[in-house]
Structures
1.
Amino acid sequence: MKTESNSKGTDRVFATERLPTAFAFDEQVASVFEDMINRSVPGYSTIISMIGVLAERYCTAGSRIYDLGASLGGASFAVAHQLPHKDYRIIAIDNSEAMTARLAKKITASGELGTHIECRHEDLRLSEIEDASMVILNFTLQFIEPAAREALMRKIYEGMRPGGLLVISEKIRFPDPQLNELFIDLYHRFKETQGYSKLEISQKRAALENVLIPETLAAHRERLALAGFHSIDTWFQCFNFASMVAFKE
Ligand code: GEK
């Protein structure tokens, strides 16, 4: 059955009944992505603006900032807007052609600001990370198969400057089944307050099954520590969505 999006950029991707298919970052999703992520991730705009604030504090002169799974560059632009100096380079990476095509246009349209952002159409599992004072994984790691996550963390750690900051935002699950159920339920109620119908919520949930694989905060911490990071903690959480910071010594 036909699925919907509209020219105003409102997310109606799951609004009509459709055959179950796995969620993909295709043209239809990219065309409504800003609306989709703002209405689907509690605290998204707060997280994005605070990533800019964190960059102001930790981006060192001449360094690189990697935005892995950049989508339309929400985090990259927040960083570029916030940084007082010009001596940095943002590398925004995504493996969705629909996303990078749009991001490249946004960068061109943003004038001087855009000259600091480089958009790469790449699988981040294969990307080189070099001389980074900050690495951002804003709701991206959850889409990487779990078996590849440890190697990715090690590669990121290796590519960072001492004192560098990693920000990881993720949908999380809870070891306590009662809490897990409560937070998922609260999240679905939150989506209803954002104008999504029960059909949209359940169809999107089904499409994300086996595509978005959440882990516990403890699993994230353990992997980060194994890769060498220290001072690992959660700086933002709302229901089953959290953002963590971790530092390289
Ligand atoms: C934001 N960070 O607005 N390589 C590169 N990109 C990938 C890969 C991969 N292997 N797998 C998935 N992606 C953004 C939001 S969205 C989160 C990030 C969401 C990309 C994928 O194409 C998509 O654009 C992004 O990761 C995840 O701050 O939609 O919930």
Note: Residues 176-213 form one domain.
2.
Amino acid sequence: MTQQRHNWTLKEVEDLFILPFNDLLFQAHSIHRKNFDPNQIQISSLLNIKTGACPEDCLYCSQSSKYDTGLEREKLMEIDLVLQQAKQAQDNGATRFCMGAAWRSPTDKSLNKVISMIQRVKDMGMETCVTLGMLTQKQAFVLKEAGLDYYNHNIDTSKENYSNIVTTRNFQDRLNTLESVQNANIRVCSGGILGLGEDQTDRASMLRSLSNLAIHPDSVPLNLLVPIPGTPFENIKPPTENEFIRTIAVARIMMPKSVVRLSAGRTKMGDTMQAVCFFAGANSIFYGEQLLTTDNPNTDSDQDLFVRLGINQKQANNLQSV
Ligand code: SAM
Ligand code: DTB
Ligand code: SF4
């Protein structure tokens, strides 16, 4: 049984980051194999159910009202349209349907509409995930009662770098929502973005914060920043492939039973890069041609990649740690 540690020191994490590449990947892949079938990948699909006009100022985001990104605002989607999209995602092999809203936090009235969506998507036999911004403890309990499986709430970067990427909330606000979600017994999906001007110590610190949560997140999405024209980060320097792969490997070692998702940014990654990320411990992707507001690889090329890598999608429907 692999031990789930909650007491990593920053030094220990930084020492993992600077291991020789092959040693790091060997260690990460060995842990991956002990805990998961290495040829299975969990497939999630995303839908933006409310677009743009967000009052937050996240410097990377197409949906913040503070930047002119040319994005058309759309109010909360009608439930029938959401169900159509969920059905299509399910037909394409997705097992989890994630619905995102560009909110700082949901009003109770909007939450009621989202609850109907969750219940109807669950009735279709899919796992549900929503990402709606900050929640009160009461709202988290209401979502649990509605049958929600996962809540996504990314910490995005290190505590130390946080005020450089958003000023309308703080790192502790993020942790508070995660605590409310865990108190309500909803599984947590939380990770971050690479390419927000952070350094290796920030990446180590971010992973440390995730692994120090009361329960490791069930899913850890690691996004490569999708640079959005019109945002302050449109021209920021991206991390190298080596830095990105190392972060996946260290996440796998620190959170051995969590599903690590190779999330946004795959359109910029070649097949070999993605294959190495899977070897390093990533075992989930967002599948489908759209993320929230930006493009994802087309499904045919993902299918081809799975075939070439021998990834068994049928069995991927019930990815469990072993
Ligand atoms: N408003 C809610 C919130 O911030 O939690 C939910 C939606 S928000 C778009 C969900 C997550 O998407 C963010 O926390 C961030 O990690 C990720 N994200 C947003 N824009 C991104 C971008 N341009 N590149 C990569 N990830 C991005
Ligand atoms: C996550 O970690 N990444 C997803 C999901 N959770 C909500 C969002 C990626 C967004 C990429 C930029 C966009 O499409 O707007
Ligand atoms: Fe709003 Fe979420 Fe985008 Fe931040 S990341 S601007 S909170 S939609």
Note: Strands lie at 42-50, 96-101, 127-131, 150-152, 187-189, 192-194, 219-224, 259-262, 282-286.
